[in-house]
Design a protein that fits this description.
heterodimer, B: Ubiquitin-like (UB roll), Fumarate Reductase Iron-sulfur Protein, Chain B, domain 2, 2 domains, 35% helix, 14% strand
Amino acid sequence: MWLSNSSIGRKVVMSVTGIALVLFLTFHMLMNLVALFSAEGYNMVCEFLGTNWYALLGTLALAALFVIHIIYAFWLTMMNRAARGSERYAVSVKPKTVEWASQNMLALGVIVILGLALHLFNFWYNMMFAELIGNPLMGGLSATDGYGYIVETFSNPVFFILYIVWLCALWFHLTHGFWSAMQTLGWNNTIWINRWKCISNIYSTVIVLGFMLVAVVFFVKNL
Amino acid sequence: MDKNISFTLKIWRQNGPKEQGHFDTFQMKDIPGDTSFLEMLDILNEQLIEEGKEPVVFDHDCREGICGMCSLYINGHPHGPATGATTCQLYMRRFNDGDVITVEPWRSAGFPVIKDLMVDRSAYDKIMQAGGYISIRTGAPQDANAILIPKPIADEAMDAASCIGCGACVAACKNGSAMLFVSAKVSQLNLLPQGKPEALRRAKAMISKMDELGFGNCTNTRACEAECPKNVSISNIARLNRDFIKAKLKD
């Protein structure tokens, strides 16, 4: 199977799952913005996504995307370290045109996973999982009271700071990941590389700022 | 006239592929600025031979930036601090009096050290043998103008063909990936009408050979393009990815 036994195939898997995850982030961010305007509206979204089987199926597909992306990331990194050989350079200088993020995608990705674990614990566990095991009041609030959980989480300054750090790592990860996916899929040349880089910087910034806006607004409200 | 400089050289010494390597330190005195880096190593080696010591082994041939034989990872850069130039085109005026200059071989699993600064780059030849050519029937040559090639395409193919196969891309890459080399060699043929009939087969064969020889997976850091002495662009890598994906989808 060329998607696992050729270098370009493995990179194609990283690109396709990565782009799908970027789309997921886009929808997630848009839904979060609802919480800024209306508590009822946001809880309606939570209720809709928690109770139906299509949403559950979507969650499983999403989890599969994450798992594939993460497994391939570690696999590729292991192969690449082996290809580097056993000796390391005594002196090594990063050329100016090399982005810092591009050389640290795995480290950034690990921060993103850790943040994700915290996020699932803060929200998903108390909301979707609580409904699944039939104990909607597990987290102290009703499972569909997403708004309540946002207020609760961001009233804690430790969580607030951890979320901001998480989002910064995500920004670095996305700025490289987005254009890099296009390059790997072959949709690039000397003209498009600057366009893709510009698009991925703007797109990552919009997504991350959207998430941050919600965190900051709810943190400030609770001061 | 450039002024003379004195500096410290830290050079990697290794007796063979399996041996443990180490750095040797040498003091160089009054080297003129218009000495090329390789001439400076020649001066060092003459001194070593006079002292009855073993000279430093390094690769070199044409010494005019065309053959791709010289290598050397100098102060953290393949082919040294100059951009768009090979080690043989690097002059000592780039350095300052009192500098410490660290010289290492290419470090990559695909390029094992033969001795000191010389590495085995025959993996590149094997990749070329896998598909870096066109199959043509012999016979009377046709008129050159019978096949028209637009100027931008011809230029792009020529830029790809400027790759000298020195291996700086692999040396610069944190993943030890040979994608810049392979993509340049695929592009110089796949762009042109003569190379088109075998384009997809070529992309598949050369990539599979590259993977087999233990080179890494490209993660688009662009270190290769920054360090390439011929300024080969990673747009060639995008083209290779495109051709390879196309070929696999057709299978």
